[in-house]
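--- STAGE predict ---
source: upstream dedup step, 1 unique chain passed
mode: sequence only
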Amino acid sequence: MFQSHVIEPAGKAVKWLGFWPPDNGETSTHFGKRLALAQAAFIQIQRLSMPGKGLSPNRARRLVKGIILPTLLFGAEIFHLTVTMIGKRQTFWNRVLRWITNSFYATNTTVVSAEACLAPIKLYAKQAREMTAVRITTVVPKNNIATAMLPGGYPLVEEYRYPMNRRQAFDNNQGGMSLKTWNSTATTTPQVPLRIEDVGAIAAANYTARAFPMKPNRLSMVTEPAAKSWFEAKEGIQKKIQKEWVEWEYPPYYEYRPPFRECWYFMTLPKLKAGRIHQMRANKSYLKAQKGWSNQDQDPYCDRCRQADQTFRQIMTNCPALASVRHGRDPEIFNIGRESTLWKGDKPGKALMKEF
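--- STAGE serialize ---
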């Protein structure tokens, strides 16, 4: 009883902020529930965009980034996804990407990811962990209890620390398990890192300057070099993840690479038009030379000129039967190369797409 109020004890389980952490430390329960929530949300929002009408790919992408992706990644900032869980999430994620781009099931999943301008789940989870590690390790310890629980010796703006009983339990453990510290280079299996130690190790790996960066805020005096280092650390993580995505193993026929923090401008076109462009760029479309598992025996020749295989490039630049359509128009409209202005989101690209 407290001030005439009776406080009832909680039940057998307490759900805190959507986390389901079991006693043994495994994360499959939590991420399994998050996956189920994302699947339920997707069943509802996919009704807003049918294959031939509805939301444009750009708007569908924004909806997915605002609802589906945060639901899938909730907890990935501190919990590690197992290989099995990453596989299950990626399977569902591929389904979402196909919905955005109107792609066929036969389309390469790596290509669909680039076309939708949404990275694989593995990269998003990695970025979430590293960005969270930077955020935790760059604030004043007295303002954030997680920062105050970083181990002694970790370089912070002040030496304030919050005592941790789990560290003491590991130090006194007689079962052979020892604690792996944030700056340890050992690779032996008996060493187990605490989550806060893991956060410190991830953050330290992203800092290229010393002293360690500090997040600018009104509650602490941060030097200009430390603040600059903080911005560089965050931007460095984003560019590193983007570089991994661009250098992903794409099939030889796909020449495009995902842009940085934006999407293709043609994704603002109506769903049917944008979907056709996605399909032709991904080499799985209704063009006769872009074959899938169901049309292997189809004649690949262009049915207009009968002079070459009917590919995306052939109908855009080479087909003589379409020469009259190309006559008198800006040649850049028919440039479908990797660096073409047609795919860019700047003003020239927008103007060209209106004529496309």
